[in-house]
């Protein structure tokens, strides 16, 4: 019988012994990773717009932006894509930069 995958298998690299933290600490950590200036620099060298990266039309609502971000980051997270780590890291940076600029 094949081993059933645990839904947390991809996240075993995180130390959660002291808990998962609260929403404010997660937001703070997210903002430390990429500022709006860093995100803007990413798109000056990129042919795509933030809307194109997230697959959205211009004028999308904040909830649509958040939903698209969460869907794509789940799909391209490096922990989930160990077999194509470099591509996953590049796409994750693009997705985070697009979300940073649009949110």
From TrEMBL:
Database matches in InterPro entries: DjlA_DnaK_co-chaperone, DnaJ_domain, J_dom_sf
Transmembrane feature ranges: none
Gene3D superfamilies xref list: DnaJ domain (1.10.287.110)
Disordered as annotated region, ranges: 1-22
Residue span(s) of domain J: 49-103
One Pfam family linked to the record: DnaJ
Protein name: DnaJ domain-containing protein
Organism: Chitinophaga jiangningensis
